Amino acid sequence: MRDIVLNVPPMDRNPERSRPITTGTRLSTGNLSRYRYEGNRVVYHLMPDEYRDAITTLRQDLETLPDRIGGLEALNRDEQLAYWFNLHNVAVVEQILAAYPIRNINRLRAPGSDQSLFEGPLLTVAGQTLSLNDIRLRIVFEQWDDPRIIYGFFNGSVGSPELRRAAFEGDQVWEQLDASADEFVNALRGVDVHRRKLRVSHVYDDARGLFDNFDRDLRRHLLAYANPETSSQLMGDRPLETNVADWQIADLINGSYRCRGSGGASPMLSYGWSEQGSGIANSCGVLPTNGRLLLNAVEQRRIELIGEGRYGEVFTNDLPSPDPDDTRPDEPANDGAD
Q1: Most CB atoms closer than 10 Å: which of 19, 131, 188, 219?
Q2: Dist. CA 239–CA 178, nearest whole Å
């Protein structure tokens, strides 16, 4: 995960408006949405065969895990939740990689099916054929009554809760979900304001069953993670709409193996980037313009956050340790004598 996911730091809430245009043309293969610099990215265009094979092997291992441990009941509830997140997300990455290069995730179909990637049969767990929506909507959303579960599912698009750079783990799953919720709620693709309307991501529409009073309880949930700027936009009585979406692929180059310049379109011959200093290649033959613009934005935002002391995550775990006030039966209490 650390090798294939580019960590994109939280961006500010200023929408991106400028067009990533290469000198000499107004044509662009880049993502032009206001959310295009938000969320972690998967470097599909750089993955060699061994990574493709590893992703498939991981999906197969997770798929067969219940059969090898005597059923999911052998795991505690938090481990089961982490299991479903990991299986769903690795299957999404595997299917996108098989179809790459693509630009719009919502146009993908499940293999051998005319159904969408999310509704078509894709996995078999404990003898049961499942779709991605079966896992998300009909297993996790029905068995865990906590809105934080929304943020564990990556759908492959820019508008999705982001793919983390580490797998979900049972003993950290709620802290990991809190961190993902914090990133998403304070991103424009999670909460946006348009004129007199409060616009939120379409992923909340699928999760209506997690909120008794959808409008009231969703606002309360968002406020629990909102920073001061987001909180100010959540206040008031703006009507709420669940219509923020961006289905363009969450990668570096917007699913395009081509770049454009004054000479027109040309095929990409090689790929790569450097995060040492500002060493991002200027040659379109190495990384297309939209990829370089994304990396420049990521680098600039990292420097800003480091300077403000706000970059990074910290998780805490309670480790078992002896109680200094507790004595074993065969040991007399220390009465202060030498």
Answers
A1: 188
A2: 26
